[in-house]
Amino acid sequence: xxxxxxxxxxxxxxxxxxxxxxxxxxxxxxxxxxxxxxxxxxxxxxxxxxxxxxxxxxxxxxxxxxxxxxxxxxxxxxxxxxxxxxxxxxxxxxxxxxxxxxxxxxxxxxxxxxxxxxxxxxxxxxxxxxxxxxxxxxxxxxxxxxxxxxxxxxxxxxxxxxxxxxxxxxxxxxxxxxxxxxxxxxxxxxxxxxxxxxxxxxxxxxxxxxxxxxxxxxxxxxxxxxxxxxxxxxxxxxxxxxxxxxxxxxxxxxxxxxxxxxxxxxxxxxxxxxxxxxxxxxxxxxxxxxxxxxxxxxxxxxxxxxxxxxxxxxxxxxxxxxxxxxxxxxxxxxxxxxxxxxxxxxxxxxxxxxxxxxxxxxxxxxxxxxxxxxxxxxxxxxxxxxxxxxxxxxxxxxxxxxxxxxxxxxxxxxxxxxxxxxxxxxxxxxxxxxxxxxxxxxxxxxxxxxxxxxxxxxxxxxxxxxxxxxxxxxxxxxxxxxxxxxxxxxxxxxxxxxxxxxxxxxxxxxxxxxxxxxxxxxxxxxxxxxxxxxxxxxxxxxxxxxxxxxxxxxxxxxxxxxxxxxxxxxxxxxxxxxxxxxxxxxxxxxxxxxxxxxxxxxxxxxxxxxxxxxxxxxxxxxxxxxxxxxxxxxxxxxxxxxxxxxxxxxxxxxxxxxxxxxxxxxxxxxxxxxxxxxxxxxxxxxxxxxxxxxxxxxxxxxxxxxxxxxxxxxxx
Length: 716
Description:
alpha/beta, Rossmann fold
């Protein structure tokens, strides 16, 4: 039985990934590489805005596709998941391997790090065993130069037998040469002669025996040597993939089975069995990586990474790692709080002046008062509040957070917290997804894809909401300033606010660990799995790209989502606040119904109703509270937080109300966007419901305990 055009699965990726070729001459290029080698920088640099994302067929791992025109040809770049190996031990490795093997790309660019070339060559040599259409990109040459590392690009190309291009993608150098190599490879003007790894004699003898039979069945359309190695390895994962994409089972062929048994006998006679076989394969590849690297890489300094190691002795030490992390978090929050105050007030003054102009316009047009109230007092004023409160802190927090990411510090955070997550019986990578939650919990939930274990991924998804997203930061900051730091002046005010906000966040982290532990001991029992965490080298941040990426990719995205949700929410809330039944608004009726229960947990019915109506977005909870408290049925224009505090106090707020409000803001059900993301990621309404119930019940219980203790002590 041989391959047919229908049985190979070749070209299926075009349909499943919706690869849109403008014409038949378009070339599909796979972009592969280890994590942290600048692969995304190269992809973004080449494709610019001509890209879109989706999910790999049947997987919840994101793929990115982009177009780039070079000379007279269109290239479709497919950014496959970053991976260290094609010996699939994770979903990402499986996708990378399967796309290179079965996706039939016209070429594959393998991006490597010039400062870590020996380690990156592992992926290069494994890929060369699958396909000959390869261009190796040695990226980060500028960083290598700074560290006195020299890579002989021409010699590397001769040794590997494929084109090699040197780039510094972050500053745009070498991209022309890279695409020129890809162009020549795809038009056939470059003939490759890929380097072949030489294994132990028994392994080579076994492969030589099996390969002809495999090649006959595959019609030599797939690399029969590589497939033979996988058959000898007994890799169930690749055998399943081969069966899926070929349309038949190779082991159903009698000739292959007979030769496979003979080949295994050769290996058994030399004491090579099971894992021992794979160990020999891996060892041979790493040995070749070392040999090639020694010939092409020269170090002027014997210890080129000593600076990084000296910094890591502090930032990742048991003694200083956690304190430094907390101080950095506090410093970022302090900058955010201090820097956001004045821009927020300035923005609010402008937006509310526009509201006055809108009011005058509606009045001049003799518009009915209900229509003016609906659009101006309801929709516009809610939007003005959300924008003025959210934009300044986001515009400060996101660039600072992106700066830490660009420097290479976030993996150090995961390293420092790994032991805590291990004790909580969950995955160390959850520390990274937790950090993503600071920007947006929906993004944090999507980030949980990096966790291979389904059990540990579920734990990370369920607990991600315990970390306050950017939509909750302004609310927490405002309450802290009004009730706990408002009596202070000067620098001490922002310092105290920062300390309290840091403690609130630490409470969120503590609850993440506690609930993760409880889940792993009850409904999601299991032991934590181990993982390899790479600490990338510290890199000089690219300030321009940090600003662009944080403003456009994060700030504008989150703000746009909040505005899109706040507009219809403002309309609905205004209607509820202005439609009366028996002399009371609908909002008052619902709030009154919830009030007895809300009082038990230190809140009131208005606050609890605001959280429920604020389900679409956390940013609109405070505007709903204000609107509910005011008899006018619309938001009030406040010159400063002192006036807002007066309103809240007049409605019965105390320090206990403020504390319980902050706790419930930190620990309650996820917003609508996050819930929908959880449903998409888990594929289950059950786990979505669990993700809603667990933080809500937890927040309610904690608020009840705090309120009860305060009342028993007579301090409330």
